Design the sequence.
């Protein structure tokens, strides 16, 4: 619910609000299972949408999807509205569904070069030697303007590196062929996990997350994450990539009237489980700095202890639902959670955490001066949209009406490393014929590649992908317009991104 520049969270001894000007100072929603975290997330998402702030949220159980349909006015929510002192008003919100696997929403794709060697190394679980080779492969691609878009390109690139190990090794550093073989097998595993739909084109333009509808309401972008969750490394790498990409692409804006985008990071413990210190440090840095780009990050997890201390300190707006404390370790967690709040003399915070009812929480938000408000015992407001999942038919309907329909749904396969390297081999075997077939592009590439290898015939790598091939003209136009231009034009940007991700992912 939206009031003047603030979102109503619920009511304690007074109405409790989240101030939009401080919503980019991040937040945390915690609580044991079934205590009301997802509903709270929905209340916040609805509030942001009403305020014209787009939202991105991962939907772990599918139960956030209901926000696209008007609420059914269930008795619990009508009752809650009365308790909070508002009128229950059913409403629905503009939703765009996304799905890394391209089934329950628009496919989300990133190119391999956008993901960068360091996140890829983490995804592929590479050892140091292999990671070194991957870095060399990326530099070879950069120096020769070979766009590395999909896994097929990466495979071709690795083959190319292995086959030219002497020449490349002399320039960039030692290449162990056996390690490349192991990397190819890891690639195959990643492919089997379905990552091949995720890596490719058309790649996501993050501005498509920052849309408002005709009424000026922020679009709620919902990532279907039920399947993705089964692959925690893919899930966490993916969300991490999105965060870094936002960080890289958005300009510095300082303090805004309201955030440009709010990002909900559900099951946040997955990001921090077994995370080495350098990774945590880097996430801490991105979280701290992304705030001045107008992005608010809200972590959702069971226990505040799931979030490392340095990051916890960055999360200004807190909603703590009930925690259970059966074991001494649980009790310690409850005490730790209680200690993160500015105490209220009216009650014993630690004791109360265990007594909170469903949809009730301890709430502390940042006030106008940016200091945390005294913790309050708050009844969370009811959402206006449906609580619970959409039916299959309803979801299909939302997808069919998406403003982004058609933009991402068809993959395309433009001229990139795989094709370029294959063409090069073709040229070496029948130069005149190949140059003609490629409309002259081959000649250009040939000379580019000679800089690395000093000429000589190379074998083409891997088999063709399953995607539709484009005509030569299309390939030339597309590659000129997208891949080539982008790779060349954003090379500096990519280098920075890799540095950020580098520090995020280093020291696995
Ligand atoms: N603000 C609220 N007002 C009234 N009822 C609520 C409220 N929040 C939650 N509930 C009730 O509690 C149920 C469970 O809430 P919710 O799904 O948000 O829990 P959760 O903490 O996300 O659980 P899990 O950890 O299993 O995902 C809701 O379906 C609803 O019936
Ligand atoms: Mg939930």
Sequence:
């Amino acid at each position: 619910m939206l009031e003047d520049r603030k979102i109503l969270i619920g009511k304690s001894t007074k109405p409790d609000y989240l101030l939009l000007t401080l919503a980019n100072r991040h937040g945390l929603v915690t609580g044991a299972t079934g205590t009301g975290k997802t509903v709270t997330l929905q209340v916040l998402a609805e509030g942001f949408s009403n305020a014209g702030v787009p939202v991105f949220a991962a939907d772990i159980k599918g139960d956030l999807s209901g926000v696209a349909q008007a609420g059914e006015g269930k008795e619990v929510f009508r009752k809650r509205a009365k308790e909070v002192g508002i009128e229950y008003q059913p409403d629905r919100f503009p939703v765009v569904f996304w799905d890394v696997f391209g089934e329950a929403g628009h496919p989300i794709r990133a190119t391999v070069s956008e993901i960068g060697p360091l996140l890829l190394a983490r995804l592929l679980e590479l050892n140091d030697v292999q990671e070194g080779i991957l870095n060399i492969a990326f530099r070879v691609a950069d120096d020769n303007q070979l766009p590395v878009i999909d896994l097929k390109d990466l495979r071709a690139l690795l083959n190319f590196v292995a086959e030219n190990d002497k020449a490349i090794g002399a320039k960039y550093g030692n290449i162990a062929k056996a390690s490349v073989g192991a990397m190819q097998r890891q690639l195959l595993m990643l492919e089997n996990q379905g990552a091949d739909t995720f890596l490719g084109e058309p790649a996501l333009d993050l501005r498509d997350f920052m849309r408002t509808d005709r009424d000026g309401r922020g679009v709620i972008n919902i990532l279907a994450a039920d399947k993705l969750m089964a692959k925690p490394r893919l899930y966490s790498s993916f969300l991490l990539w999105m965060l870094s990409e936002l960080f890289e692409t958005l300009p510095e804006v300082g303090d805004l009237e309201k955030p440009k985008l709010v990002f909900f990071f559900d099951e946040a413990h997955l990001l921090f489980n077994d995370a080495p210190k350098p990774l945590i440090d880097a996430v801490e840095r991105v979280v701290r700095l992304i705030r001045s780009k107008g992005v608010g990050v809200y972590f959702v997890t069971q226990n505040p202890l799931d979030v490392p201390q340095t990051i916890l300190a960055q999360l200004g707006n807190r909603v703590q639902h009930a925690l259970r404390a059966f074991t001494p370790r649980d009790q310690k967690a409850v005490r730790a959670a209680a200690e993160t709040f500015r105490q209220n003399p009216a009650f014993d915070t630690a004791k109360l955490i265990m007594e909170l009812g469903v949809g009730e929480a301890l709430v502390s938000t940042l006030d106008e001066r940016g200091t945390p408000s005294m913790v309050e015992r708050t009844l969370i407001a009811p959402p206006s949209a449906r609580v619970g999942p959409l039916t299959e038919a309803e979801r299909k309907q939302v997808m069919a009406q998406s403003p982004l329909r058609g933009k991402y749904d068809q993959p395309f396969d433009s001229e990139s490393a795989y094709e370029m390297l294959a063409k090069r081999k073709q040229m070496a075997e029948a130069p005149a014929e190949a140059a003609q077939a490629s409309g002259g592009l081959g000649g250009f590439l040939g000379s580019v590649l000679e800089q690395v290898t000093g000429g000589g015939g190379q074998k083409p790598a891997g088999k063709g992908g399953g995607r539709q091939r484009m005509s030569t003209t299309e390939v030339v136009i597309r590659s000129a317009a997208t891949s080539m231009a982008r790779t060349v034009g954003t090379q500096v940007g990519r280098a920075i991104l890799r540095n950020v991700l580098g520090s995020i992912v280093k020291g696995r």
Observations:
- DSSP finds 19 helices and 13 strands in the chain.
